[in-house]
Amino acid sequence: MEIFKNIAVILLTGILTENFVLSKFLGICPFLGVSKKASSSLGMGIAVTFVMLFATAATYPIYHGVLVPLKIEYMQTVAFILIIALLVQLVEMAMKKYMPPLYKALGVYLPLITTNCAVLGVTILNIDNGYNFGESLVNALGAGLGFLLVMLIFSGVRGRIERCNVPKAMQGTPITLIAASIVSLAFIGFGGIVDNIFGAL
Amino acid sequence: MSYLKEFTKGILKENPNLVMLLGMCPTLAVTTMAENGLGMGLATTFVLVCSNLVISLLKKVIPSQVRLPSFIVIISGFVTLVGMLLQKYIPSLYDALGLFLSLITVNCIILGRAEMFACKNRALPSVLDGLGMGIGFTLSLLTVGSFREILGSGSWFGIKLLPDFIEPMTIFILPAGGFFSLGVIIAIVGKISKRKPKDISCSGCPNRGSCKFAEDEGDTAEAAQTEK
Prior knowledge:
- Chain A is 76% helix and 0% strand.
- Chain A has 201 residues and is mainly α.
- Chain B folds into two domains: 2-192, no CATH class; 198-228, no CATH class.
- Helices cover 61% and strands 2% of the residues of chain B.
């Protein structure tokens, strides 16, 4: 029971209260750049979730199996970014060969992910927070799903903005950022929800 | 005087942050206080200048197929160095920046300048370009940081500005206020420089070359796939 509670807390925290995009400011570039259409938001969100899971599964053993025994934890950033770059390439190649339909749907988003700070961010946060392997994976899943959710919500918001008569000075990026601010405001409303649900148990 | 131009273009005309719209994550995340914005900007400037120098010196050695991974390794090396220096000498800033110090590695400004400028130019212009871009980034972080700190905490660099009976608007140091402040500042900069505000696009993204998504968004992505 304790394990399930723990998993649910990490998952819900990642999706709602500590959302990667809206409260940790990770992955802002794809959030603002690719969220014009619901279809591309969905693709990007799924691709990021995948890579986050794979990246966590790859970096966690490397950190605890290689960097810690050799006492070179300071190489964390260098090692992690290399692993992520390699992984994105491998996933792309494997997808192309074995899962062409999936590649066709998600392949275009993969190169964008290497330099997505959310992916590097989630792997480093897992280490910093001292999660074990299972918790790290759950955290990565929560972060990915949170990203996906916000991308989808925001693509809807942007669809509305495009049909609005925005003052000239605010057109383009400024109004997009202000819309993001309002969506972020809505997510503040989730504050404490996780504690309230699970604190009672 | 072309060297001077390389230096000054980054500060306002091609400000990486407010005009080219790159490196948004640190701009939003660390600017709850002017001090943190300044620290982050200077750390990024250091990495940018060093990586531009090394990459422009190595541009003939690095094969173009593996240049992005090579650039990332060079950049992350300097990021690690900055992290160690800050941890030793300015631990308070190291703690305040936290995760975002490591994430300088994936700051698109640095990779973007490496890809667009340093790997095509000689060492001196590359350093000046890095310095100019870095100063531009630092100034914009300082502006956003000051805006948010003054409105959100009623102080600037920790010095109290507002009298006690005026309640500062805490919303400005929350994430929502970050998005709002940046939007307003970009609008003001666009107004002052009389430029039509750009939409966020892929024009500055270092991955543009390898990304079929970059040219125009949406359905063309699938079209590009079938062409291939």
